Amino acid sequence: SNPCKNGGTCVDGEDGFSCLCPEGFHDPHCYSEVDECSSSPCVHGTCHDDINGYQCKCEPGWTGTNCDVNHNECESNPCQHYGTCTDYVNGYRCKCKEGFQGTYCQININDCASSPCLNQGTCIDGIASYTCLCDLPYTGRNCENVLAPCFPNPCKNNGVCDHTPDYEGFICSCAPGWQGQKCHIDINECDQNPCRNRGTCTNTLGSY
User: In this UniProt entry, which cysteines form S-S bonds (predicted)?
Assistant: First the structure.
């Protein structure tokens, strides 16, 4: 019978025989398997010896035959909304653009949470911003200003001021004897010849 085990080839000689062992086995009769793990080839992992080889079980965050390659967790682009990914061993961190937060920058920060719109204005959230929809007569970024076209009163000579529907302008109701946008023009009542029986008309401010 072949004294060489595990597929070894027996070579006869003058003083006996010798075995040519297949890769992975050694000693005179090819009994013993070579321990490829003896050199500690797995840098960041656990070595499992095989016949004519070994396998590495890598620690989290490492890859490669010898567990010597840092697994780049940023390759999958986990950071949303154009966040910047920084790779670490067995992890990563996202630096979010302004207006976003969360592990993956997946959360749009609610800029309306602080209720910035005054005077019952409606807040519309944006990206790192907000917009206030103001109820008249309020205006401004935060509805903090009041549209008051009649204050101070632009209507002269006891004219009555009323705002336009959009509060952007005003309308003057003039007292008798006055006309014009601001009731600043005296009406010449004498143009209508109000004096009877050849009376002479003299125009005065607001009357005759």
Answer: 21-30, 37-47, 58-67, 96-105, 134-143, 155-172, 174-183
